[in-house]
Design goal:
678 residues; elongated; mainly alpha; 29 helices; 7 strands
């Protein structure tokens, strides 16, 4: 009689109409069935491969949805596999798998039917029935479980009372003994109830934690809301903080480690690297001990691989290449171990693909672009195979796009301009195809913004300035939209800064100084926030924040506002010099530093020695540097009268199609650099 959203709970679920007709020769649903569907509050579908292939089961579901909407259908899985897309195993009929619109027409959007699972290894008969009754009555599942337990205890008490009556009949001597036994039985029943209640509560809590760390996490990643992700992680950790973990199972400890990693990721995205490292290290300590106890268990290997990746990621962000390499090599070794254990596991293959890209990134940072290309091609080989195998899996498609992104960076660094552009175009084609078939995805949008401003940079290097501006504007608009939707996510701020920096650079080359200045000034404002949040982040200090400041100085130089240019370039050099001299920088930071030295030499004759400084920095293996840095080397050699060296370098860039405006500008100042083909 208790009131629920479906009205008072009846004593019995009746009447129940059971459709036993096959309708094999009918053209439509029979009148009796149609009338029963219209009069029913719920439709209960017994799901199996046979049901999924039955035309009339599907028609009844469609008719019921048109009459009553989506929310009153309950599914019971008796065989097969839901959403397998394999006719031999799929158990959900088509009308159950997809949502219907307001006019009763089936859409392409996947539904999420409420289902009780009677299969072996599923919910279990009693739990499945309770779950089904809860769905039909609106009662809480926990209340039904508690009520069933109370009935069991009531029967046990009745039995105890019956035994007591027999004991009385047997005589006064046996009465006291029987009474004590009854008391013991009641106490045992209460203990069983308390134990069962605790097991049910723990099981439900663990299921909720698993859901939050897996399915819900994926959905929140797509939405891109740090505040909600943070709540999920903290709630999970709060649950484990109340538990005595001394007797916790390995799976429970693994879930706690994943919760710690989630909290660390949120701290990382907010720019708090100290807090992130603390969370990652705590997770790593747990997973390392678990792996020590069970070294051949793939779950333990996988859990620890995630921990060591994130600890290494913090080191990489701070420019500690040696520590990053140590941890990422561990990650690579663990990925290989997983493949040895289960070579057919596609999730393990994905881990190996990620490890390839990590090692390639480390090589790129050191200027070893050819070695990086080898790693990135391995990464692309795996990710493309998985993307082709799972064409509907957004995460697999994004991974393939990322592999193209890394490969494009390595190719561009080697002045393979056309190949780099084609790799970026392949990446963008993947994102555009995925975006056309899915709702807005924050991860996809973030990757697309990076791809577009990187593509704009390549177009600029080919001398296609107008196209570069178009792509940079798209990247900037997308990055701004994502950052405005989630302003605590400072990695999105990072993207917004770089997009506007490249847009400002391209606009400078067209002479649109007003819009160039506007975009670069906005980029500096956003970058200042990044530095304020975490001054230890090398990428933010040495690249993201420095790039728009450098471009503003170059913009002032182009307009012959030399004093203003000096006011911008001098403090920038003071900030970058310690990073370069201490060896904490990568080739990208070094390029910005050397470009700043060149700008200072152009605007002030007191700094002509900067050209010799640039040459000395590049005197080793010059092939470690990308085409923009080589452009600086050409200018420095030319300024120092080393015409042959400058001309040879110029030819090496011009031949593969490098036509960056800064490179072409050198031909006006130093005509001897013009290649024979010009």
């Amino acid at each position: 009689g208790r009131e629920t959203v479906h009205g008072p709970i009846p004593r019995r679920l009746a009447p129940i109409f059971r459709d036993r007709d096959e309708l094999a020769t009918a053209d439509d649903l029979g009148h009796e069935i149609t009338a029963a569907l219209e009069a029913s509050m719920f439709l209960l579908v017994m799901c199996s491969p046979a049901a999924a292939q039955s035309q009339w089961v599907n028609e009844e579901i469609k008719a019921f949805k048109k009459m009553h909407g989506e929310g009153r259908i309950r599914a019971v899985i008796v065989g097969g596999e839901p959403f397998s897309d394999d006719p031999d195993t799929e158990c959900f009929p088509e009308a159950l798998r997809f949502k219907f619109d307001d006019v009763g027409e089936m859409t392409g959007e996947h539904a999420e039917p409420i289902a009780a699972d009677l299969r072996k290894g599923g919910d279990g008969k009693k739990y499945a029935i309770s779950k089904l009754v809860a769905g039909l009555t609106g009662a809480k599942l926990d209340d039904l479980i508690q009520r069933e337990q109370a009935r069991r205890n009531q029967r046990m008490r009745a039995m105890a009372a019956g035994f007591g009556a027999v004991a009385v009949a047997m005589g006064a001597l046996a009465f006291d003994a029987m009474r004590q036994r009854d008391v013991a039985r009641v106490a045992e029943a209460e203990a069983v109830k308390a134990r069962d209640d605790a097991l049910v509560a723990r099981s439900e809590a663990e299921d909720e934690i698993e859901f939050m760390l897996t399915d819900l996490r994926k959905k929140l990643d797509a939405v891109g809301r740090l505040d909600i992700l943070d709540t999920v992680g903290e709630r999970a950790l709060g649950y484990y903080a109340k538990r005595d973990l001394s007797s916790a199972s390995p799976d429970e400890l693994g879930r706690r480690a994943r919760a710690q990693l989630l909290v660390g990721e949120v701290d990382n995205l907010r720019g708090d690297l100290d807090a992130a490292l603390e969370a990652y290290t705590a997770a790593a300590n747990t997973t390392e001990e678990q792996l020590r106890r069970d070294p051949d268990n793939p779950d333990r290997i996988f859990d620890h691989s995630q921990s060591v990746f994130w600890v290494g990621y913090i080191a990489w962000q701070r420019g500690d290449a040696n520590t990053a390499r140590r941890y990422w090599t561990q990650y690579y070794d663990q990925a290989k171990r997983l493949i040895e254990i289960d070579p057919g596991n596609d999730d393990f293959q994905a881990e190996l693909e990620y490890s390839y890209s990590n090692l390639g990134t480390l090589e790129m940072d050191q200027g070893n672009a050819a070695e990086a290309e080898e790693w990135f091609r391995k990464s692309l080989g795996v990710s493309k195979a998985l993307a082709e195998k799972y064409p509907g899996a957004v995460n697999r498609q994004i991974a393939a796009g990322q592999s193209y992104s890394w490969l494009a960076e390595a190719l561009y660094h080697q002045a393979k301009i056309r190949e780099a552009r084609e790799a970026r175009e392949s990446e963008l084609a993947i994102y555009e195809a995925v975006q056309a078939g899915t709702e807005t995805d924050a991860t996809l949008g973030n990757n697309e913004s990076i791809a577009r401003y990187s593509y704009a940079d390549i177009l600029l290097s080919e001398g296609r300035i107008d196209r570069a501006i178009d792509e940079a504007q798209l990247a900037s608009a997308l990055a701004d939209r994502l950052f405005n939707a989630d302003p605590k996510n400072l990695h999105l701020a990072d993207r917004a800064v770089l997009a506007r920096s490249i847009l400002g650079e391209a606009l400078t080359h067209t002479g649109d100084y007003v819009n160039a200045s506007s975009n670069l000034t906005t980029a500096v404002t956003i970058a200042d926030r990044l530095i304020a949040e975490d001054p230890t982040n090398l990428r933010w200090r040495g690249k993201v924040a420095a790039l728009p400041e450098l471009q503003l100085a170059i913009l002032a130089e182009r307009q012959d506002r030399l004093e203003e240019a000096a006011e911008k370039i001098d403090p920038l050099l003071l900030r970058l010099r310690p990073l370069v001299e201490e060896g904490a920088s990568d080739v990208a930071v070094l390029r910005i530093y050397l470009t700043s030295l060149a700008c200072q030499a152009r605007i002030n004759d007191d700094f002509t020695d900067n050209w010799a400084t640039i040459v000395s920095f590049l005197a080793g293996d010059i092939q470690k540097h990308g085409p923009k840095t080589l452009t600086l080397a050409i200018e420095a050699h030319a300024q120092m009268g080393q015409h042959e060296l400058a001309s040879d370098l110029s030819q090496s860039l011009h031949k593969p199609g490098f036509r960056h405006p800064e490179f072409i500008r050198l031909f006006d100042d130093h005509p001897f650099l013009i290649p024979d083909t010009e």
